[in-house]
Amino acid sequence: MKSTTHLLPGASSLLFAAILLLVGCATAYGPSSEKAATVPLYDRLGGVYAIATVVDDFIERLLVNDTLNANPAIKAARDRVPKSGLKYQVTAFMCQATGGPCTYTGRSMKQSHAHLNIGEKEWQAMASEFKKSLDKFNVPQREQDELFALVGSVKGDIVAAAKN
Ligand code: HEM
């Protein structure tokens, strides 16, 4: 006997609407690559509290880093500048640079680092501590890559040309 499946009247259009809805949802909540294109890095990192938490950990690591403290200019600035102020300024800088609603009011990267005689050795030491902080707070690889690109973009202003 020949069997035929009949949809209830209107059921096929309902099914079509459901498929459209599913496709729509899959696009809106799709892979992080699509989200990354539209959501600012600031929001993907979790906002200013999350950024401040990473910066806090990062600055604490820098303060006890032997390579950085072996540089007398860096050591002298560290002893002079209150770490809470430095954490505030770096947080505001990162907040603004990642597309957040903060306004950085500190000096330029050139002005604030020119006297520190920072070379490639110190830069690499800083980058390695930065990576440790990002890993500690489970910052995803894509966001880490974007943060390193951002930090790398100011390298020319921070690293003393004469030392390289
Ligand atoms: C090896 C790398 C670095 C070292 C050793 C270093 C060290 C320091 C020190 C000692 C100060 C205080 C200077 C002073 O007031 O006399 C400072 C200020 C600052 N740094 Fe860095 N820094 C490094 C890289 C960076 C990077 C990559 C950023 C941003 C992406 C950054 C952002 C800042 C900001 C926003 C301030 C505050 C400037 C102000 O108070 O006007 N630094 N840094």
Task: Describe the 3D structure.
This protein is mainly alpha-helical and 164 residues long. The protein has a single domain (40-163), classed as Globins (Globin-like, Orthogonal Bundle). Helix content is 69%, strand content 0%. The chain has helices at 11-28, 32-38, 41-45, 47-63, 66-69, 72-80, 83-97, 109-113, 120-136, 141-152, 155-158. The chain is globular and about 45 Å long. Bound molecules: protoporphyrin IX containing FE (HEM). Protoporphyrin IX containing FE (HEM) binds at residues 68, 74, 77-78, 81, 86, 89-90, 93, 106-107, 112-113, 116, 118, 122-123, 126, 151, 154, 158.
Kindly identify the CATH topology. Globin-like
The number of helical elements comes to 11
How do the SSEs run, as a string of H and E?
HHHHHHHHHHH
The computed structural class is mainly alpha
Query: Low-confidence parts lasting 5 or more residues at pLDDT below 50?
Result: 1-9, 14-31
Query: What is the 3D shape?
Result: globular
Assembly classification: single chain
**Percent of residues in β-strands:** under 5%
Strand count: 0
Helix residue percentage: 55-70%
- Rounded to the nearest angstrom, the radius of gyration is 24 Å
From the coordinates shown, what is the CATH architecture?
Orthogonal Bundle
Quick check: average pLDDT? 85
Q: What small molecules does the structure contain?
A: protoporphyrin IX containing FE
Please give the alpha-carbon distance between the first and last residues: 87 Å
The CATH class designation is Mainly Alpha
Structural domain count = 1
So, the CATH homologous superfamily? Answer: Globins
Largest sheet: none
